[in-house]
Structure prediction request, 134 residues.
Amino acid sequence: MNYWLVKSEPAVFSWERFVKEGKAVWDGVRNYQARNYMKNMCIDDLVLFYHSNTGKEIVGIAKVIKETYPDPTADNIKWVAVDLVPVSAFKKFVNIEQIKINIKLKDLLLIKQSRLSVMPLSEEHYRALCKMGL
DNA sequence: GCCAACGTTGGC
DNA sequence: GCCAACGTTGGC
Prediction:
């Protein structure tokens, strides 16, 4: 089991819409590092859903239901997509300020590499974030 | 709106 | 292969 965090601007694709639609095709990633992480996603891996730009907070947990396949929105087969479904919403959204002041989370890639849109989480980081949000 | 931190592109 | 110029992301 692996743990991940993905970012989405709520103005583009929000958690609310994700829940309403019941599923998301996670496509459009055009960054090699993010793509390489996506290729390592396995069915049933858990994924924290972060609202970037507006909100700047983790809003819920999703799950991988389909592993990488060619991104239907790309004109090159090198890009990939995965399918996600919502699992549960955070009771308390975990914003970036809270994350930054938590010493346990100081090595989180969300902080260290702010532009990365798909990133792995250690189990410890995953648990710490869930503890803050659930 | 600004800027830091990347990524990409293209000339050499 | 290097690097300047430019583009994008995302926090502030």
